[in-house]
Amino acid sequence: MKALALKGLIPLLLLTMTCTVSAAPTKLNSLCQLHYPSDYLYEWNCVQLTNRDSPYRIFGKYWKDGLRFNRMDRRHFIAGLSIKVPKRVKEIKDFTPMPQWYQEAEQEPQFIVIDQNEMFLGAYEYGKLVFSTPVAVGIDGMRLKNGFYQIDAVDRRHESSLYKVEGSDRYYPMHYALRLFIEKREEGWTTYWLHGRDIPGYPASHGCIGLYDEEMQKEYYHDPSRPILMDAKRLFLWVLGDAREHGKLYHLGKGPKVLIIGEPPAAAPEPQPSPVVPLVPASAKPGQRP
Question: Whole-model pTM?
Answer without folding.
Answer: 0.85
